Amino acid sequence: MSSINPKQVSRIAELANLTIEPATLDETTAGLNEVLTFVEQLQAVDASGIEPTSQVTGLIDVLRDDVVIRSPISRDELLKRSPHHTDGQIVVKRVLK
Amino acid sequence: MTAYLTIKEAREALEAGSITARQLVQSHLDQIDKVDDAYKIVVSRMDERALEQADSIDARRNSGEELGPLAGIPFTAKDMFLIEGTQTTAASQILKDFIAPYSSTAITKLEAAGAICIAKVNQDEFGHGASTENSSFVTTRNPHDVERVAGGSSGGSAAAVAARIGIFSVGTDTGGSSRQPAAFCGVVGMKPTYGLISRYGVIAMASSLDTIGTLGNSVDDVSLVCSIMAGQDAHDATTIKLDNYDFSKRQTKPPRAAVIKQYMENLEPEIKYSYEQAFEKLRQAGWEIGEVSLDTVSSALPAYYILTPAEISSNLERYDGIRYGSSDDAPDLTSVYRHTRGKYFGPEAIRRILTGTYVLSAGYYDAYYKKAMQVRTIVRKEFDTAFKKFDIIIGPTAPTVAFKVGENSNDPIAMYLADIMTVAANLAGVPSISIPLNGPHDLPLGLQLMSAQKNDAGLFSAAERAETDLATKLKEITL
């Protein structure tokens, strides 16, 4: 189960929106296989019927009043951090052809 | 050389008027000039801002105003903490020019108490590592031996405290990132109960495990800083409510303590000897120390290295080259994302994103992610059972002293093993602290103490007692 090939790694990279240089693909694959082999030892633990834990302090459904809270940070201040922006909007490459 | 080791000493001097806040802050800025070429701790300096804040504290003190408990105390922050108007990089090329638009709650609270941030310090990129060798800028050196790492990921914070750059430092701790570097650098490092301190404005690594760490030169200092940052925050829904945030009370009796059996197995003899001597010293000081077996604790590390990459792959999705951060040009939108992320994330961040994406993908989810969450439940329950019988459980913080720079950097698993004794506290959400011990070759080790969730006050009490009873004197660093 734990072995993964360069083709699969390329597919995972696509899913994660990452380019992996072809020259480093084999090295990346080897590193990933080492990690997967390491975590494989979990399969020896019998956890059948055990509830999974995703939150440790027991908080459930933390809600606040359903009111609009204005951000103290201005639109301009946030837009300044975008590499490409104009007229109060972020510019991206054309999506629809 | 900066004259005051602890907050308490510095505060007394400031209150007595034997030093001004400006002089104190300046002396710590001078220390950066003096030692940082050797240790490579600082990512960005905040001289002007810090001196302005110091002048304001001095003026308020002169006018007789009552000041906060940290008035005029210089500190450093791991480069994960947003401070409005200043550079915050997470030691990553993808954020190398990022200027924070707001401040984290933790920093806001420290500044309201009068503390003065003098510099942002180095770390592994996004907290991924145990040595700062994964910083995209520089590797921080251990002030006890510059051939060795400072630990990580909050290695800059631990080295800063050891090298007297700031009197304390704030870091993060997702799997040991404040405690392990504290152990390597001979300082105190603490992770609180999950949710005790707001993470608003602190760059996320693995959200179900991330906590805010504090590093300092004494348990008393760390407990004071932690109590100031603690509390519920509307901006972080995971923050918890405690009845009492004052961690300065100390219990009169030694705690019921137990050594974790599994943590003492497979240690090198000279390391094991150091710990056994420490336990003996505590017994002589009146501690009753039993033994506790946590049968599944050895599975905590593989579970951690499934859960953490899974959460990292999700948390790092936001770095897309569009809204903020570094960006690479490409002919279409998807290629902008892919080239930006491939170019500006370092190798370990990429490894964790890929691992996380894989373990969460259809067909593998049950075998990896769900299984790790189930193991997390078993680990939690073992801790719950242990804390019914004992107040405190103790053991090493890390299995070794600080390793040499480069020793583990080409072997991801060897690097992951540096966290083997710290990750369980994060999986269980319990508070944990590392205090210094003498190790072999004049290098420091850390003694780790853990208590039940929300018993942070009890943990500080026990740790201060251990600090007093052990009276560790590390070999002095030549700065």
Structural topology:
The complex is a heterodimer of chains A (about 100) and B (about 475).
Chain A: H1 6-15, H2 25-39, H3 75-79, E1 85-86, E2 89-90
Chain B: H1 7-16, H2 21-39, E1 42-45, H3 47-62, E2 74-78, H4 105-112, E3 116-121, E4 141-142, E5 145-149, H5 155-162, E6 168-173, H6 179-185, E7 188-191, E8 211-216, H7 219-229, E9 256-260, H8 261-264, H9 269-284, E10 288-292, H10 300-315, H11 333-344, H12 347-359, H13 366-389, E11 392-396, H14 412-417, H15 423-428, E12 432-438, E13 444-451, H16 456-470
Parallel strand pairs in B: 2-3, 2-6, 9-10, 9-11
Antiparallel strand pairs in B: 1-3, 4-5, 6-8, 7-8, 7-12, 11-13, 12-13
How would you characterize this protein structure?
The complex is a heterodimer of chains A (97) and B (479). By secondary structure, chain A is mostly helical. Chain A has a domain at 6-44. Chain A has helices spanning 6-15, 25-39, 75-79, and strands spanning 85-86, 89-90. Chain A has a two-stranded antiparallel sheet. In chain A, a hairpin with a 2-residue loop joins strand 1 (85-86) and strand 2. Chain A is flat and about 55 Å long. Chain A starts with 5 loop residues before the first helix and ends in a 7-residue tail after the last strand. Chain B has an 11-stranded mixed β-sheet with strand order 1-3-2-6-8-7-12-13-11-9-10, sandwiched between helices. Chain B has a domain at 7-253 and 432-470: Amidase signature (AS) enzymes. Chain B has 479 residues and is α/β, with parallel strands linked by helices. Chain B is 40% helix and 14% strand. The termini of chain B are close together. Chain B has helices at 7-16, 21-39, 47-62, 105-112, 155-162, 179-185, 219-229, 261-264, 269-284, 300-315, 333-344, 347-359, 366-389, 412-417, 423-428, 456-470; strands at 42-45, 74-78, 116-121, 141-142, 145-149, 168-173, 188-191, 211-216, 256-260, 288-292, 392-396, 432-438, 444-451. Chain B is globular and about 65 Å long. Chain B has 16 helices and 13 strands. Chains A and B meet through helix 1 and helix 2 of A and helix 10, helix 11, helix 12, helix 13 and helix 14 of B.
